[in-house]
Amino acid sequence: MKSFILLLGIALHSSSAVIHSWKAFLTASTGLSDFPEFVALNLVDDELMGYFDTKTNRFEGKQSWVEEKLGQQYMERQENILRGTSQSFKVNVGIVMERFNQTKGVHIVQRMYGCEWDDETGVTEGFNQHGYDGEDFIAFDLKTTKWIAPTPQAVITKHKWDSNTVRNEQKKNYLTQTCIEWLKKYVDYGKSTLMRTVPPLVSLFQKTSSSLVTCHATGFYPSDVMLSWQKDGQDHHEDVEYGETLPNDDGTFQKSIHLTVTPEDRKNSKYQCVVQVKGIKEDFIKVLPDPDAANVVPIIVGVVALLLVIVAVVVGVVIWKKRSKKGFVPASTSDTDSDNSGRAVPQI
């Protein structure tokens, strides 16, 4: 295992190949008075590119190159499309609530779709998934051009959408061609931002001398990062928990790794957290001090935990997005841009 981790670290520093992605997260909710009924996010390489919600009814470019390179007409088109999409999502929330025999409460319908492109191998992938209250609802399978319904309440939708073979073929065409073409344009337009490297700020946190130690890296870019613990100069994997890479609101990322260790073992051994970011040759190391000298920072730990929750809500990261990404997004008859096809939302 040690040799594998070492090789992975070398690859992280030296590899120039990148898997680029364009993703859209659409979220409609009911029962949340302080949250917009509909929110849409566009991300390129997991960095926020565009934002829309029904409180402002405006589409905003979150990178300087978006409006500069794509133009005002593009911005207005996305705005009009998303206004219509928000109405379709509102209807779908009501339909799904009826399927589950629900009449009130907080409920959320989400959709994640987009495409990926490996700039070294040329391999591409597309995906289109719908979720309800944090669980899979229905997803499109590119190979069969059919819909997968993991829950009985989605079977009606599956039969309805499977019957429209023309639209399903358009989905396949959109994600295998149009989406990839626009993804490459986005990567080129935003290369000064997307190809940059930003070193991390690394900190160690612990509530008490007997609780787990958290190594938290934040502010780094790109998102490809490896966090690890070492004991006396050797990779250490026992009693280690790995967190997910999460976005910050400034376009950078954060990640944590946790270690359970006794005060006695800390006195007898040297522990350190090692952070490696792709494209940056330097390793970032934080040595875990002797427990008698360590600062206890429960307040900061609480703040970090709260920030992670806020980021997850605002960015609209769906619970089910890490699962298998099979399927593609519906395409309209127009392929004028990367979003038109994806925003056509048929009734569930």
UniProtKB/TrEMBL annotation:
GO cellular component: external side of plasma membrane; extracellular space
Membrane-spanning segments: 296-320
Keyword entries, A-Z: Glycoprotein, Membrane, Signal, Transmembrane, Transmembrane helix
One Pfam family per UniProt: C1-set
Entry-linked InterPro entries: Ig-like_dom, Ig-like_dom_sf, Ig-like_fold, Ig_C1-set, MHC_class-I_related, MHC_I-like_Ag-recog, MHC_I-like_Ag-recog_sf, MHC_I/II-like_Ag-recog
The keyword Glycoprotein appears for this protein: yes
Domain Ig-like: 200-276
Extent of the signal sequence: 1-17
CDD domains associated with the record: IgC1_MHC_I_alpha3
Biased composition (Polar residues): 331-341
GO biological process: immune response
Keyword Cell wall biogenesis/degradation: no
Region called Disordered, residue ranges: 328-348
The family this protein is said to belong to: Belongs to the MHC class I family.
Protein name: MHC class I antigen
Species for this entry: Oncorhynchus mykiss (Rainbow trout)
